[in-house]
Amino acid sequence: MLTTCESILKLPYLEKMKVVAGEKGLNRIIRWVQVMEYPEYSKWLKGGELILISGIGIKDNVNVLVDFVKDINSRNLSGLVINIGPYIKQTPKEVIELGNALDFPIFELPFEVKFIDVSQSICKTIFANKLDQESMDNFMKDIIFRDFTFSDDILSRAMNYGYDPKKNYTSFVIGIENIDDVVDNKNKDEESILSIKQYVEQIVMNVLSKWKKKSIYIMQYNSIILMIPESGKKTTDDIAKDIIDNITSKEKGLNVNIGIGGTWNELKDFKTSVNEAHRCLKVIKLNDGVNQVQRYDDIGIYKLFFEMDKPERMKKFYLSTLGELINYDFKNSTELLNTLEVYIKESGNINRAAEKLFIHRNTLKYRIKRIEEISKCNLRDVNELFNFDTAIKIKRFLLMENIG
Question: CB–CB of 95/63 below 8 Å?
């Protein structure tokens, strides 16, 4: 249901079009087609466009064409179609070498083939695929967010969208954490928020296509939900990191986290796995993570927190453990609780903890002594440390859930 540079080669009016560079990038997704004869107009592009040029604004200026290819590739465009004729008689060697180096698809099209026919053929396919995607979005949202009876008809419909009941799947939730801040900093409007979301979606689809992963995906608010065939923990983690690296390098200032739910092989379990992935995003936020990947299998004691249905008992535990420190900090404007948290995170290493707190190691030793006196504990006791660590996690968890 995605229109790629490779898939358009089979469309009407494009039979004579040939790939001259960037063959490894033919998996790039095409969102629209744009005729653009003058390079300076590239600043208006949003990402995902396939550019058509006759060369009237470039002609035989190789350097201008090279710079143009660099520019549109940096804007995450899909590819470039050059109309070979009176203005550009052949694709320059330098441009071909650049396209191959960037894995950026460059095509040659005979001059007698009209741009209007090419554009209509591709855009018609894009529109049809978009309708299919909207239908799939609605169907998958029903499965995730509503109570559903999984009949044979439902399974058959899911298979039409690409689901294979013989495969195991992993659920990703990609959280775009600070899109509003990025927009505010750039003085952008609501339309620009949508543009950034579409740009991120384009990047994600290109990465998955590069990894040859046929995913079912859904856009929801500031997140993208993916159903991806499982291919081992390392590969799955590498895909997630690749997605984050591509997004953060191409959209500066944007923070992206990815939660990975448990592996499943029955459609009815997709909802559970997505919920697990959402919980992973919460755990990342709890620990002040930025541009991180978190697996549900690795969230440890937080699994227990999410399943507990009596938060008042959790609150009672953390207050009985941390209450004295909280009160002392409040009355004396100190930061003993934060000191304890950093000390535990650094596994009791005085030097590393002092460095993180920007204080002298002797100051840290004094604070630890005060913590022990106020809380009547021994921080060299692993059981005491475990209790404090658990209490701190519970406190942050309940605050996140608006309970604490």
Answer: no
Q: How do residues 56-114 score in pLDDT, each as one tens digit?
A: 988 878 999 999 999 999 888 999 999 999 999 999 999 999 999 999 999 999 999 99
- Does 185 score more than 90 pLDDT? no
pLDDT tens digits along 322-331: 999 999 999 9
Under the banding of pLDDT at 50, 70 and 90, the label for residue 203 is confident
Quote the tokens at residue 320.
């009985």
pLDDT tens digits, 19-56: 999 999 998 889 899 999 888 888 888 788 999 999 89
> What is the chain's length?
404
C-alpha span between 41 and 29 (Å, rounded): 21
The rounded radius of gyration (Å) of the Cα atoms in the chain is 27
Q: In angstroms, how far is CA 288 from the centroid of its own chain?
A: 17
pLDDT, position 63: 94
Domains of the chain: 7-123 (3.40.1390.20), 169-299 (3.30.70.270), 310-400 (1.10.10.2840)
pTM of the model: 0.75
